[in-house]
């Protein structure tokens, strides 16, 4: 991404946190980022488009940190899931995501409202996928219902505690919700109670242009390989930077383009493959397997 554009997104992010979405004008953004109105509209069609970029930036950071918690850990460990939820809620609180989302939902921008609604479904999809890792195979038919219940419990507990000025800690709340969902999954699977078929979960986000922030196998594989490269060339910054740029290029091309340029991806992959320190690692072997399923 253009460095100047990144700078505008960063400044707008700070303003949205400090003043809220509606109270932040385009002129405020111009003043704080030091760009002209012409440059702004060269990067973004509207303030709403800029908000999407800020939102995407926040969740890209979140995605990387969530994936980092899984590296070297058992995905079926529910304690790791609890840590991930705690991290997510902490970052959302720091970025005042609840207030920003409420601000946007009160706007008259239907496209922006749809963007926010779809992001909620992405979170639901992420929870559902994590439950598939956590709970046994015989419980799979009931996990979409359980994911819906879990996200609903979390949302309303947060809102109600905030409204009542309760001093319950985030950890206490998350532990409570995770314990409740364990009981629910066991009960509905024992009784064979199913409301929604998990086979239809894709209908939640039909033909979406949104990035799937919360469940990207490629991101996990990329992060694992990135850590290996950093370990190999920790003191050789130029060489390390060269290979990391190749990784980021491939991820951007696959995730953000509807029609990834395969020949460019293959060229970048070949450069990685030609390095013996990389191609002999298990991280690179796994990375290639994941990538082959996506292109």
Molecular structure report:
With 295 residues, this protein is mainly alpha-helical. The protein has three domains: 1-58, Arc Repressor Mutant, subunit A, CATH 1.10.10.60; 75-204, no CATH class; 217-292. It has 14 helices and no strands. α1 (3-19) packs across α4, α4 crosses α10 and α5 (78-94) crosses α9 (170-191). The model is unreliable at 207-215 (pLDDT under 50).
Question: Main attributes?
Answer:
single chain; 3 domains; mainly alpha; Arc Repressor Mutant, subunit A; 72% helix; 295 residues
What shape does the CA trace take? globular
- Main sheet? none
The residue-averaged pLDDT reads 85
Counted beta strands: 0
Strand content: under 5%
Total helical elements:
14
The N- to C-terminal Cα distance equals 22 Å
Question: How many structural units, i.e. domains?
Answer: 3
| Helix content range | over 70%
The chain-level structural class is: mainly alpha
Low confidence ranges: 207-215
Set out the fold topology.
Elements: H1 3-19, H2 26-33, H3 37-43, H4 47-70, H5 78-94, H6 97-105, H7 110-134, H8 143-163, H9 170-191, H10 217-232, H11 237-256, H12 262-273, H13 276-279, H14 282-292
């Amino acid at each position: 991404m253009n460095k100047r554009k990144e700078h505008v997104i960063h400044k707008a992010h700070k303003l949205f946190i400090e003043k809220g979405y509606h109270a932040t004008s385009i002129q405020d953004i111009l003043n704080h980022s030091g760009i002209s109105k012409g440059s702004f509209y060269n990067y973004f069609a509207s303030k709403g488009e800029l908000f999407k970029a800020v939102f995407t930036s926040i969740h890209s950071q979140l995605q990387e940190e969530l994936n980092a918690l899984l590296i070297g850990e058992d995905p079926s460990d529910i304690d790791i899931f609890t840590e991930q939820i705690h991290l997510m809620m902490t970052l959302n609180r720091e970025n005042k995501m609840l207030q920003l989302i409420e601000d946007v939902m009160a706007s008259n921008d239907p496209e922006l409202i749809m963007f926010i609604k779809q992001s909620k479904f992405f979170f639901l999809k992420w929870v559902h996928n994590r439950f598939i890792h956590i709970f046994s195979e015989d419980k799979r038919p009931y996990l979409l219902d359980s994911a819906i219940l879990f996200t609903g419990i979390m949302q309303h507990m947060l809102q109600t505690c905030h409204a009542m000025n309760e001093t319950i800690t985030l950890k206490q709340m998350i532990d409570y919700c995770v314990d409740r969902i364990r009981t629910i999954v066991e009960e509905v699977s024992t009784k064979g109670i199913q409301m929604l078929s998990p086979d239809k979960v894709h209908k939640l986000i039909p033909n979406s242009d949104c990035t799937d922030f919360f469940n990207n196998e490629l991101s996990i594989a990329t992060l694992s390989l990135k850590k290996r490269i950093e370990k190999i060339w920790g003191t050789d910054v130029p060489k390390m930077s060269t290979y990391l740029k190749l990784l980021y290029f491939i991820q951007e091309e696959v995730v953000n383009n509807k029609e990834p340029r395969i020949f460019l991806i293959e060229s970048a992959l070949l450069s990685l493959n030609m390095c013996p320190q990389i191609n002999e690692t298990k991280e690179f072997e796994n990375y290639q397997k994941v990538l082959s399923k996506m292109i």
